[in-house]
Amino acid sequence: MKFAKTLTAAVLAAGLAFSAQAADKMKVAMVVKTLGNGFFDAAHQGADEAAKQLGNMEIIFTGPAKATAEGQIELINSLIAQKVDAIVISANDPDALVPATKKAMARGIKVLSFDSGIAKEGRLFNLLPSSNALIGEKLIKMTVEAVGKTGEIAILSATAQATNQNAWIEEAKKVLTKPEYAGLKLVTVVYGDDQTDKSYREAQGLFKSYPNLKAIIAPTTVGIAAASKAVVDGNLVGKVFVTGLGLPSEMAGHVKSGAVKSFAIWNPIDLGYSITYAAHEFVTGKAGKTISLGRVGTATPDANGEAPMAEPFTYDASNVEKFAKFF
Ligand code: RAM
């Protein structure tokens, strides 16, 4: 009997120790625009890397099936109920998420955005992948490299409310107003909602509506891959060029086929790592005027509470294969 009692006490004590340890683990939720997107899978990989380095951290990786604000709001509410320590989010809408993330912050949850930001009042910090202006310039520069300075061009974006794509498109449009680009005519902006099939159909719609189209700029990894496939399937290689932001692993074949001359992106693994590291800095009270991003460096938020991570990197036939094994 005495043995049994001691054993029970020991088991109980072990159980308590275990749950105390589990409770101590910092829970960081990464809410992405949508599941099944290779870009966010790479960001997840970076989050896991940061968690491993920092120790005692659990990553909850989640996102809606479709890139909607409603889907993300539902997830945020459930994460509030789970009492996570931090939420890092790539927002499907800058404003629609604010009431939900404000509620989270009122409960002590540190909310940060990355990739696609939440409006200032709805988060503590927004990590931009790069400067919006640099990305806008890059998109036009790559277009000119592919088709020259004259002709019809179109943009195939992600969702109509996406903070990041809208900011980049705005910057690209600013660049197009320069006299040297007067010959480039932006005929339309269409939205594939970061769904492969919808993006593919939108690209086909562009070929039909604009028979003289020379280039599609897709500032989304889902859109650029789908548009490139539509160009290949439609036997339009050499007639319509695709450029934008893509993953080397998904784009190597399209560079080879000739549908794409060059595209750009930053390192999505580093982005996921950096925002997870930043979340840790906020939860532990270490974030100040500068925020450590671990092995990636530091971020110094501007008046809007935002900071860029890195410059976009350009890929073409000379280097795409080399990077395809990473992301
Ligand atoms: C898609 C998403 C993401 C964006 C990349 C470039 O994967 O829309 O938000 O940053 O493209």
Give the arrangement of secondary structure elements.
Blueprint: H1 2-24, E1 26-31, H2 38-54, E2 57-62, H3 69-81, E3 86-89, H4 98-106, E4 110-114, E5 125-128, H5 132-147, E6 151-157, H6 163-176, E7 184-191, H7 196-209, E8 213-218, H8 221-233, E9 241-244, H9 248-257, E10 263-265, H10 268-283, E11 291-292, E12 298-299, E13 306-308, E14 313-315, H11 320-324
Parallel strand pairs: 1-2, 1-3, 3-4, 4-5, 5-13, 6-7, 6-8, 8-9
Antiparallel strand pairs: 10-14, 11-12
Helix pairs in contact: 2-10, 3-4, 5-6, 7-8, 8-9
| CATH 4th-level superfamily of the largest domain | Response regulator
Return the domain count: 2
Please indicate the percent range of residues in DSSP E strands (runs of 2 or more). Answer: 15-25%
State the distance separating the first and last CA atoms. 60 Å
Q: Provide the spatial order of strands within the biggest beta sheet.
A: 2-1-3-4-5-13
Q: State the secondary-structure class.
A: alpha/beta
Helix content: 40-55%
In CATH, what is the class of the largest domain? Alpha Beta
